[in-house]
Design brief:
The chain is an alpha+beta fold. The protein has 5 helices and 6 strands; from the N terminus they run αββαββαββαα. The strands form 2 sheets. It has a 4-stranded antiparallel β-sheet. A two-stranded antiparallel ribbon has the order 1-2. The protein is elongated.
Length: 182
């Protein structure tokens, strides 16, 4: 039980990092990336379906995302989903494929995206701290542990927290640098 709480906290913190990485992949950097479309869900025959399951996604000419639906009748639904997804990119439908041309980021847009990245990082740090708080409370409530073991557990949990907060800072800083790179 003693270090099981540390291990379970590490697993939870890993999930927070994975979530942050997937969120950061959706942030525009000025270059087209099919991962930007990961959160787009299409109302396909009445049920929300991830875009990558109903269409082939590719990058053309470095700045254009091309969406080629497997079922041509879903073209309008895909176009609507792209508009609703708040990507900041207007889709153009030519009857067979949808093209999303990623605009060049302006200085203001870059600053805005950097703020968005910082906010994502801060939200994940809060989740990490909440995991730490919950683990610490479990350790404090465990009456079977002696005081030294409790302190060891608390120190391990704090080291784990510091490690994951640093990972979050590193990921956010790398993404911010990518966004700011012209």
């Amino acid at each position: 039980m003693t270090y099981a709480i540390v291990d379970s906290s590490a697993v939870k913190m890993d999930k927070v990092i994975e979530h942050l990485q997937s969120e950061l992949n959706t942030v525009r950097t000025g270059a087209a990336n099919v991962k930007m479309l990961d959160r787009v869900e299409v109302d396909y025959y009445g049920s929300p379906t991830p875009l990558n399951q109903i269409a082939a996604l590719s990058v053309s000419e470095g700045r254009t995302l091309v969406i080629k639906p497997y079922d041509p009748s879903s073209l309008k639904a895909i176009e609507h989903a792209c508009n609703e997804a708040d990507l900041g990119i207007a889709p153009s439908n030519d009857g067979t494929v949808i093209r999303l041309t990623v605009p060049q980021l302006t200085g203001d847009t870059r600053k805005e995206m950097t703020k968005k990245v910082d906010k994502m990082g801060e939200e994940c740090k809060i989740q990490i701290r909440n995991i730490r708080r919950d683990a610490m409370s479990v350790v404090k409530k465990d009456k079977t542990m002696d005081e030294d073991t409790q302190k060891d557990c608390e120190n391990e949990i704090q080291k784990l927290t510091d490690k994951y907060v640093k990972k979050i800072d590193d990921l956010a800083a790398a993404k911010s640098a990518e966004v700011l790179k012209v």
